[in-house]
Specification:
Elements: H1 17-37, H2 41-56, H3 60-75, E1 78-85, E2 88-93, E3 116-118, E4 121-127, E5 144-151, H4 158-206, H5 208-236, H6 239-274, H7 277-282, E6 290-291, H8 294-312, E7 316-319, E8 330-331, H9 333-350, E9 354-355, E10 361-362, E11 364-372, E12 382-390, H10 396-399, H11 421-431, E13 435-441, E14 444-452
Parallel strand pairs: 7-11
Antiparallel strand pairs: 1-2, 1-5, 3-4, 4-5, 6-8, 9-10, 11-12, 12-14, 13-14
Helix pairs in contact: 2-3, 2-4, 3-4, 4-6, 5-6, 6-8, 6-9, 8-9, 9-11
């Protein structure tokens, strides 16, 4: 028995007369157009199958396959699809496994916004909806999203060329809608990820304010008690003892205030970085690259931020090749600062005591950098930035998933976490054109990232 859906009420909505007439007019124009086209049954079937399969297959790659296979399956013609982007073209052709290289110099490939017959190929422009053209991820030149190449074309009749022009129009519509849909899905996923980033890098660390305020409150209360003592001290001649106590409290207030102010500066930096308007407008992280001193502007503030936590947990800080000058890499200071914040946060959680080479018990972290000549190819040098902590090695079966969203290794014990920190690191480093990695060392674990010295992604 079919499931029954009860309807409580029905509202009446009449068609708008002007809109209805406009739609009917276009229907009759299309009826006349198709009568004039006089497509054969095989041509009509090709269009119908293309439309049906475009709705059936969800992925963008499947749509590309459908586009180039329709001419092949229905008309035994080879087909190539060129998707344009910023002066480049991605080519999809009806070949399998290893496709042959283009038979002409790529520099000679010039596409036009009108159909062209050239070198036994029919080149058909693929355009999208003019009103929605700004919603795709790139700015198409003259509204041209791509080009469809049909070959051999020298024996195609005028009527057959017309058919493929109409086919290219339908290809343009489907590609455009699929690109918008893909961008919207990526945009929504980005917003979800951004919310996690805000929670992980801003909201959770901001909870430390509560601890700092409690300390400040305790010192202020002690200062009030001291005031009462001072009022009675003149009769007891305890001036020196009271002054020493006042000095101690005053120093404590200054120390806690400095802690709060450093935390405020970092929280403000992260808020301004994560909540940039450009992130939301483009649906992805947008870098604001600047030349910066990695040590003084990025690393040192994060070391200061976590130094109290390191001290409370008995973790020493050992330096190993720390940059103290301008380095060539150009980066987004706010986002790279959060990369270091995540690495130091993990170090504070997972650093453990081990035996050093002399048999002494040690517990420390270290950070530094090293040049990596030709790391990204000939004359494309990199800089490797390391954050090391002592402890047992991450198991080999866990290492491959370390930088995946939501993944947590088996050595976490009872430490709380979301598995988002390392994923965020990978996302930001790759956005800079770099790579992330993990390597076990004799005394513990080293997490690193390598950035190109050119600063170009």
């Amino acid at each position: 028995m079919d499931d029954q859906i009860p309807v409580i009420d029905v509202s009446m909505k009449c068609l708008d007369k002007k809109r209805s007439f406009r739609v009917q007019k276009r229907m009759h124009e299309k009826i006349d157009d198709y009568a004039e086209y006089d497509f054969t049954s095989i041509q009509s079937s090709a269009l119908n199958v293309f439309f049906d399969l475009s709705q059936e297959f969800d992925s963008f790659e499947d749509l590309l396959s459908i586009i180039v296979l329709i001419p092949k399956v229905f008309f035994d013609l080879e087909c190539s699809l060129y998707l344009l982007r910023e002066g480049q073209a991605d080519k999809v052709a009806t070949c399998f496994d290893a496709c042959p290289l283009p038979n002409r110099d790529p520099d000679s490939l010039v596409f036009f916004s009108t159909p062209k017959l050239r070198d036994n190929s029919l080149y058909l422009p693929i355009k999208g909806n003019k009103q929605l053209i700004d919603q795709i991820p790139f700015n198409p030149p003259h509204g041209l999203m791509g080009v469809l190449e049909i070959m051999p074309a020298q024996d195609l009749s005028r009527h057959e060329r017309l058919f493929f022009e109409k086919f290219a129009n339908r290809v343009g519509f489907q590609l455009h809608m699929r690109m918008i849909s893909k961008k919207n899905r990526e945009h929504l996923q980005f917003i979800k990820t951004l919310v996690k980033d805000i929670g992980h890098n801003v909201i959770v660390p901001n909870m430390f304010f509560k601890l700092f305020y409690r300390r400040l409150e305790a010192n202020i209360k002690a200062l009030g008690e001291l005031k009462n003592e001072l009022q009675a001290a003149y009769a007891l001649n305890e001036d020196q003892q009271i002054m020493a106590k006042m000095e101690y409290i005053h120093n404590g207030l200054q120390e806690h205030y400095a802690e709060i102010y450093r935390h405020y500066e970092q929280t403000s930096l992260f808020l301004e970085t994560l909540l940039r308007r450009s992130h939301f407008e483009q649906g992805k992280y947008v870098l604001e690259r600047k030349a910066c001193n990695f040590k003084s502007q990025i690393i040192d503030p994060q070391v200061q931020r976590y130094s109290h936590e390191f001290k409370e947990k008995g973790i020493e800080i050992a330096l190993a090749g720390v940059p103290d000058q301008e380095i060539e890499v150009v980066a987004d200071p706010g986002l790279i600062s959060q990369v270091y914040a995540n690495l130091f946060s993990n170090a504070a959680k997972y650093t453990r005591e081990v035996d050093d080479f002399a048999g002494n018990r040690v517990k420390f972290i270290s950070y530094g950098w090293e040049h990596k000549p030709d790391y990204f190819g000939p004359d494309r040098h990199g800089i490797k930035l390391n954050v090391f902590s002592t402890g047992s090695h991450i198991q080999p079966e866990d290492r491959e998933g370390l930088f995946r969203e939501g993944f947590r290794a088996g050595n976490i014990g009872k430490e709380q976490g979301t598995g988002h920190g390392l994923f965020f690191i990978r996302e930001i480093v790759e956005l800079h054109g770099g790579v992330v990695g993990y390597e076990p060392t004799p005394l513990g674990n080293n997490f690193y990232f390598v950035l190109p010295l050119t600063g170009q992604a």
